[in-house]
Amino acid sequence: MQAKVKKEKTFYRSKICLAAAAMVAAMGLPAHAAVSLGNVAEIAAWNHKRDDVVKFLNDRLSHVKSEFGRKSDIFDNLSAVKSMNSDILSDISHLGDIAEIDEKLREYSEKIETAIRVIGVKGKESEVQPWMKDLRKQDLEKIREKVKDVLSAPEHDKAARQEALSVYLADRTAHDRVRDEAFALSQAASALETRIGRIKQADETAFRRMANTNELVSRALPDPEKFTALSWRDENLFNADFDTGYPEGASVVGKDTLLELTARSGPWSEALKDTVGGVRDVGTIRFKPGARHVVGVAGGTLNVHHALEADTGAVIAVGTDGVLNFVANGRGVDSGAQNVTLMAGRGADAVEVTDGDRTGERGAGEVSRKHRPGKIVFNAGTSAGNASIAVSDGGQVRFDKDSDAGASTLLVDGGSAHFESARAANATIRNSGVLKANGASMGASQVVNYQEGHADFLNTRLEDMQMTNTGLVALTEVDGGSAQVTNGGDGNLRILDTDLGNMTLVNMGEVTLSQSRGGNAHVRNGAHGDLSVLHSALDNVSLTNEGTVELIGATTAHAARIALDNGVLDVAQIDSPPDGGQRKISMGSLTGKGDLVTGDTVVELGALGLDDTFDGRILPVAESPDASVTRRRTSRLSSGVTPKRVPDASLRSVAAGARLIKVGAGNLTLTADQSGVASLDVQGGKLTAAHEKALGSGAVTIGKHAAIALTKSVAGVQSVDNAGQIDLGTNKLVVGRYTSQPGAQITSRLSKVDGGVSGGAIQVSENSDFTNTAIHVSVAHDVVLADVQDKLGVVSVAEGKSATLGKVTVGSITVDKTTDPTDPTDPTDPTDPTDPTDTTDPTDPTNPVDPSNPDTTPPVEPDTTRPTGVVTGQNALSSRILVPLVKGISL
């Protein structure tokens, strides 16, 4: 911005003499007395003043018409002279012989002598020929002398004299000059008549507007060496409507004045120059087409009561101890104004502000530091419109209550911008200095806070703001609205006591969220991002994490959706409840791949009841903490926003294992090694184990309304206490000890796998009790009895250990699919249909029928491929063995 203004200043200095000379020549300002307008705004009898103006202008009109008449007479005379000269020149120009030219000139000499004898002579009027009508005697005498000079010339000088005469006869300078002067007077008369007519028809409002509209006019050539500024003194003002200037000391410019800056205003003016008390009021400043003008404001206050208007462009530079003040209830910068540039910084005048070359302050030392840099203030009801506002070198732009920044562009470099209960509207703000918003509304503004920038938002509505930060930003007590915030790799974003609302937050640097509410925010923490959440309620936040996220203190996340994208989620620093119980945090949903680090905090997953898949690990401690991240985190927590409890880094080192609780109606699928989980409590919904170590390495508890399903064989579990359901499928579950509560179930399935038959089973290595567990084995339709005679056992026990079973049921099993269903009598079956006793299978003496217990079902056989202990049970097996009949109908 400053470079642009410097180029313009160079242009001004290099062209200023030519431009100003042409301007003064073109102005044609009449040197006449000015009408006394007084303070029209305070005149009660405005119509009397209007009549005075009309009278003054009529006098001017009479003068102009009189002058026009005089110029017209001169023009008629010069036209006649031009006509005569043209005739002579025409007649001699085609003659080539000197003697012939002399002869023709003698003829014209006689005509001229005749005309001299009759023009202006009383009684000779009838002898005046038409070509003589507008000629004067002195004109004829002058041309006669020119002709005689040629005729009397010696022969050697004759040709030169004839050539000089031809040049004289061809000269139209005087004729054209008077013609132009007469035309200008004609135009002036016409303009005066138009003004008079308009003023006569004006009502009070229109008349006051005319009276208060003045043009700033430079009446003298500027000095290119001194390059001095034009003052807004009264003698430099001109009222075009009243066709008048003002005497010095008339105090014309005031709060209702419309000051027009035009091509006649020169390149530069200082608004406060020659003021008393350093204050000037103006109604409207209007930059007209063709104006290339810079206004300086230094050493006082310029109050703009109505508006700043610009048809093509405007520059106002506010320097040391200067204030550009847009007064309340005005318009500020008009919404239609284009290419308006406002600058605030240090400098004794506009040139020093735009150049940054403060020669006026050099050597002042302590004195210069006592002076304040320039300031631009927008008060209630005013707007910055489409202006470009540049503040530097300590300069300031301030939007006070109920003002707005419009669609302006704010460039803050070493200065500051302030919004105090104001509206940022559609502004673009680029900050490398200080940006403060207090009680403000950020609208649809676009904010870029650079590395050197410091932005502070307090009690502010962010609304639809878009912000990119690579510096330092603090959001305190703000309403996030639908803001889009991107925190870059070098950015530090501190959020305190804030409702994120529907904010979208992307972090690639450092973010601290403290004592806040997450609302419905969408948060993405990038690969190098570091997000710490302290004492905050994440509410319905959707969080995607590629970097590091810490949940600290009293933070809650029971409705939050968290997705890890190779990131780390650390909850080790969650606070204990006030009564001193177990640290615990609940998360609505956890998906993705990464590490969940728990410390000794119990983690509850699934509160939202969703079907989630977590491909990451749940660890009590991080495997390899990054020292640089730790240092950065410590620095952040110790500056500005800090947790109520100082994080205890030793918690991670003493954690014995992670503790996980599954709640909610949804299905949580764990696909990774969860050896770090020491306690798994499934209280609701389903937990699906899709990895050999998915159930951890400790105790597993299954609640009454919960289930665990295996999609892969699982080992490494120390104990299982089941009050709900275990669905083994065709997989194996290897545990230390199994216990159950009334209503517990285990389901297994026999299916053909890779040409063989495989069935789900549970293997225990300690004495176990299945008494309260109902075991049900379902059989695939293509499995026959011969395939499973030794594979119906679901429970196997390590050698030297025992297990007590409850009820075991086996689903339908086909005896032999090759049996002819059309022949009800099998010739190989010796059993007499009338004798129900099968002689080929006598009663086993080792298992006599208990008369009091008619159940003759043999006990379940354990898996003979593993070391077995003793398995005992009651009502151990009941099943149906189906014989295929015609068309596959089974009984």
TrEMBL record:
Which major enzyme category is it? hydrolase
In the record, which residues are listed under signal peptide? Answer: 1-33
User: Which keywords, in A-to-Z order, does the entry hold?
Assistant: Hydrolase, Protease, Signal
Q: Does the keyword Transit peptide apply?
A: no
Q: Where is this region: Disordered?
A: 625-645, 814-873
Q: Name one GO biological process term.
A: proteolysis
- The EC number on file is 3.4.21.-
Q: Where is the composition biased (Low complexity)?
A: 834-855
* GO MF assignments: peptidase activity
- Give the superkingdom in one word: Bacteria
Keyword Signal part of the UniProt annotation: yes
Name the record gives this protein = Extracellular serine protease
